[in-house]
Amino acid sequence: MSFFSNFTKRFVAENKSAPEEAPAPKPAPAPPKEEPVEEVEEGTPPQIAPVEVPEDYDLELLLRTLVAQKGSDLHLSVGEKPIFRINGDLHRATCAPLTQERAQKMLYPLVSAERRLEYERCGNLDFAHEIPDLARFRANYFRQRLGMGAVFREIPSKIPTIDDLNLPPILKKIALFKKGIVLVTGPTGSGKSTTLAAMIDYINRTRHAHIITIEDPVEFTHHNKQAIIDHREVGNQALSFADALRASLREDPDIILVGEMRDLDTIYNAIKAAETGALVFGTLHTNSAAKTIDRIIDVFPAKQQETIRAMLSESFRAVVAQLLLKRKGGKGRVAVHEILIGDTGLSNLIREGKTSQINNYIQTGRNLGMQSMDMGLIELLRTGAIDKATAREYCHDPNTFRNSGFDLSK
Q1: How far is the C-alpha of 382 from the C-alpha of 406, rounded, in Å?
Q2: Helix, strand, coil % (nearest 5) of the chain?
Q3: Beta strands in 237-290 (DSSP E)
């Protein structure tokens, strides 16, 4: 007989004498309360006015239209009409879509035969293009499904100052650091290059220094004032960012600007350059100070990270994290910043791997010019530069806003 059969018989025998009582009926559970279901309709995107462009347009006309409209980028793709980015929004032109034949006729004359072969081999190409008395443009050619594509970003011919851009005054102090690493971070299109150009311009007007810029391509061109400035373009005057950085240490630099710290070799050589006594400016695509430090360290293999932490803790000076937001009413854009400045306390946090405490460190360093992104957003709310909807989209801690008199839930 099986174990289960014996167990069943024993259980019945032990409980046979007990009076059997019919269990009290349990009340039927109340049916779940039906919540009203809101019907969600697909929202219609806001109407964006097209840009008037004649059918016989050429590239120069499109770029002049971009500047006249105070736009930032011109998008060209075979099979699509030219598109202008103005105040962050994409505006289509009124003309016919671009054809492959027309794209080649407009775009190929801007580059040499050698660069054209590079584009055809790699499928993309970076360079700078200038229209005298108008502006410089950072250009990127690429291949897409239907044919050629290109994006032109305007680089103002007049370099804006820190005051012109209404940047935090502490950036002037940061620009005058004698050595270390200073990073300007943010997503693509957040104005990192413009902020760096304003800081280099401030140094150029106030210091006798040798400045080397390493970019791909060279965007803002600075003319010597108090400083001596040498521009090097990757692909033309240098093989790579890392190679140009290594060479710069033999070129007596006081300041080195690295257009983009995109790989391990470039980041390592930037840290080494700072260790030798140069002030190194660079950019990363991070949106906060703490993430910036983590990104630098995480680039390296685990067995090297402790060494990199020690090196970075000695050379790190500042992070300026930047976002571009729409102004209230949609007229133009305004920058908001998170600013971290290094001292002994920050060096200890980096060395010990306690980057999670950096936000608290920023909060206690307001007297040094530091501010969190939320503090920057609150200031823009106070001045009426942005509305609550924009602040709500980018805020990290709603309680910080509530304590400052701005309830973002309403």
Answers
A1: 9
A2: 35, 25, 40
A3: 255-258, 279-284
> Are 309 and 339 part of one and the same domain?
yes
| Contact assessment for residue 144 and residue 77, using Cβ atoms and an 8 Å cutoff | yes
- 12 alpha-carbon distance from chain centroid: 74
The answer on 148 and 177 residing in a single domain is no
In a domain, 116, yes or no: yes
SS3 215: strand
216 in the same domain as 117: no
Tens digit of pLDDT per residue, the chain (410 long)?
Answer: 444 444 444 444 444 444 444 445 545 444 444 444 344 445 566 678 999 999 999 999 999 999 999 999 999 999 999 999 998 899 999 999 999 999 999 999 999 999 999 999 999 999 999 998 888 999 999 999 999 999 999 997 789 999 999 999 999 999 999 999 999 999 988 999 999 999 999 999 999 999 999 999 898 999 999 999 999 999 889 999 999 999 999 999 999 999 989 899 999 999 999 999 999 999 999 989 999 999 999 999 999 999 999 999 999 999 999 999 999 987 789 999 999 999 889 999 999 999 999 999 999 999 999 999 999 999 999 999 999 999 999 999 999 999 999 999 88
Residues 123 and 176 in one domain: no
Q: Name the DSSP class of 21.
A: -
DSSP E strand boundaries for 132-254:
135-144, 147-156, 180-185, 210-215, 228-233
The answer on 174 and 149 residing in a single domain is no
Rounded to whole angstroms, the Cα distance separating 246 from 269 reads 6
Query: Which strand (E) or helix (H) includes residue 61?
Result: helix 59-68
